[in-house]
Amino acid sequence: MKIGVLSLHGGVIEHLNHIRNLGADAVEVKEENDLNELNGIILPGGESTTMGLLLRERGILNPLKQRILNGLPVWGTCAGMILLAKEIENDFRNHLQVMNIKVRRNAYGSQLDSFVCSYRIEKVTNEEIPLIFIRAPYIVETGREVDVIFEIDGKIVAARERNMLATSFHPELSSSLEFHRYFLNMCKEYF
Ligand code: GLN
Fold first, then answer.
1. 54 lies in which domain range?
2. Contact 28, 66 (CB under 8 A)
3. Does the N-terminal or the C-terminal CB of the chain have fewer CB atoms within 10 Å?
4. Whole-angstrom Cα distance, residue 1 to residue 39?
5. Is 172 a catalytic residue?
6. Residue 47: CB within 6 Å of ligand 1?
7. Which of 12, 15, 42, 48 to mutate to test the pocket of ligand 1 (most atoms within 8 A of CB)?
C-alpha cells in the first residue's frame, strides 16, 4: 500500500509517521506526478485557504479532483475536510468540491477555543481515543449518501461518503493509530 500525504502546507509529518507505523508506504505529494500509483491520499490540517491556493498554483487541484471522482480513497482532516466539501457555509471560496457535505469553518471559535476530548467511536475503534480539535470546522449538512461516523453534541465531526472520509479533528496528533488503520482498510477496499 502506498499512501500520499498532500505536502504543500500544514501538518504533514505526523500523518506520514502514523501511516509508516502501520507498515504501509507514505509519500509526500507536491506535484501532479506524485499522484501516480497511490492507493489513497490524506489532506492534512492547516489553513484551507492557503492549501486551496497552493493546490491551484501547483496545478494539482483538477488532477486530484478527477482521481477522487474516479475512486481514489481520500481522507481530509480539519482543513482537509474543508477542501473536500461541496459547500462552505461561511466562505465564498470552494476547493475540491467532491464530498456532499456543507461545513462551517472555525465552527468552535478561535485558536484559543481549541480542545481535546476522548470518545469511543463505534464505527472505527473499540477503544476510547483522544480527539484533538484545533480551530476546527464541523459539518452542518450532509447529502443522502453520506454516512455520519460521529457526532458530538449534535455536531457532525466525522463522516464518510464512499471513498471519501472527513474528520474535524486530528488523529495524527494523538498516539492512537486507530483512525489511520480505518483509512488503510478503506484504501484496501478500493485496491
Ligand atoms: N481553521 C482552519 C481553516 O479554516 C482549519 C484548522 C485546522 O486544519 N486545524 O482552514
1. 2-189
2. no
3. C
4. 6
5. yes
6. yes
7. 48
Polymer length in residues for the chain: 191
| CA nearest neighbour of 155 among 112, 117, 181 | 117
The cell for 166 is 472527513
Asked if residues 32 and 66 have their Cβ atoms less than 8 Å apart, the reply is no
Distance CA 81, CA 65 (A): 14
Kindly report the CATH number assigned to the domain that includes residue 171.
3.40.50.880
Is residue 174's pLDDT more than 80?
Answer: yes
**pTM higher than the cut 0.95:** yes
Tally of domains within the chain: 1
Query: Which atom of ligand 1 approaches the CA of 79 most closely?
Result: 8
Q: How many Cβ atoms from other residues are within 10 Å of residue 40's Cβ? A: 25
Position of cell 494523538? 174
pLDDT tens string 80-128:
999 999 999 999 999 999 999 999 999 999 888 899 999 999 999 889 9
